[in-house]
Amino acid sequence: LKRQARLRREFIYRRSIEARDAESQRKRDLLRSALKEGKRLPKEIQEEALKLNEELDWSDDGGEGVATAEDNEYLWAGSEDPRVVVTTSRSPSSRLKEFAKELRFLIPNATKINRGNYQNKDLLEACLAKQITDLVIVNETRGVPDTLTISHLPFGPTAVFTLYNVRARHEMEKLGRGSGAKMPQAYPQHAFHGMNTKLGLRVQSILKHLFPVPKDDSRRVVTWYEEDDVISFRHHTYKYVDKVLQVTEHGPAFDMRCKSTFIHGLCCTKFGGVHCTKKRRLMSNGSIDRTCPHPINAVFCPNKIPLC
Predict the structure, then answer these.
(1) 19, 58, 94, 150 from 207: Cα distances, Å
(2) Does CATH number 3.40.50.10480 belong to domain 72-298?
(3) Cα separation, 30 vs 46, whole angstroms
(4) Which CA distances in Å does 156 have to 35, 69, 205, 272, 280?
(5) How would you class 142 by CB atoms within 10 Å of its CB: exposed for 0-12, middle for 13-18, buried for 19 or more?
(6) H or E stretch including 203?
(7) CA pair distance 73, 265, nearest whole angstrom
(8) 266 confidence band (pLDDT: 50, 70, 90)
(9) What's the CA gap between 288 and 298, in Å, rounded?
(10) How far apart are CA 11 and CA 157, in angstroms?
(11) What sequence ranges are listed for the domain Brix (predicted)?
């Protein structure tokens, strides 16, 4: 516990240093722009303009893509497969249990555990003791799965999604289990559409790092199609028969909307850093390329727009 508290303090300190440096860089950019255009200095930098001007003499372009604390959250992504735990809320219904079970088979290297009466804090402590990298919790309302929480351990980020139109494999008559197709076990490729803003890329990073790195020739694809801040999830495999593309949907299928993202872990939200996504057009800026050469382009979402 002492080690976890120390690591948490170090992580929060690094974020505070980054915030301070980002503010200093913003002021230097304001000064550089004012000097270049010959405009009056903004009031917020007039008192420290001389100090900022001295810093400009030693600064130059470059430094883009430098690792930050957000990058360090997934520092070992790709070198080690994620270890994911899937669980439910307390006293789950049979449908929620079945949905959690399907998420366990959807995510490679995932393990489903029974929640029992454990609180979130106890659950996180158990996951940290077993070096779990991500915790996925599904909740319900009157037997209908309606909330998906993804928390990266140990320090976050955490994303909370509201679920809509949930269709499990056993509920599909002609697709999924109803078609007789078995659940594929290969590591899936990811097809992302939309989510091109800073917040959208943040959500994209949270989702894709639940899965291990796939092989280049993997024929299993999970699609995250975002439009108007609603992400439609679909799960397919594809193959070529006589040079004709054949696509099979396996399920589960659902739509979700990002309710909020926390910089820190599930039980560390008191430290701040909450990004709410209640307004529209936060996940994408509307400039979306709807064409893609990927073969899964033959799959269509409910609004008949080709997936990417």
Answers:
(1) 25, 39, 26, 8
(2) yes
(3) 11
(4) 40, 11, 12, 12, 24
(5) exposed
(6) helix 198-208
(7) 11
(8) low
(9) 18
(10) 12
(11) 82-267
Evaluated on CA atoms 126, 128, 131, 133, the torsion sign reads: positive
Q: What is the C-alpha to C-alpha distance for residues 98 and 112, in angstroms, rounded to an integer?
A: 11
The pLDDT tens digits for 80-124 are 899 999 999 999 999 999 999 999 999 998 999 999 888 888 898
Q: Which has more pLDDT, 240 or 49?
A: 240
Q: What is the pLDDT of residue 290?
A: 38
Provide the whole-model pTM.
Answer: 0.74
Strands (E), the chain: 84-88, 110-112, 134-141, 144-152, 158-167, 189-193, 220-227, 230-241, 244-249, 253-262, 274-276
> Got the DSSP string for 155-183?
T--EEEEEEEEEE-GGG-SSSGGGGTPPP
Amino acid at 37: E
Site of tokens 């998420």: 103
For the chain, the domains span 2-66, 72-298
Judge whether residue 272 has pLDDT over 80: no
Looking at residue 104, its amino acid is: R
Helix and strand numbers (H, E) in the chain are 7, 11
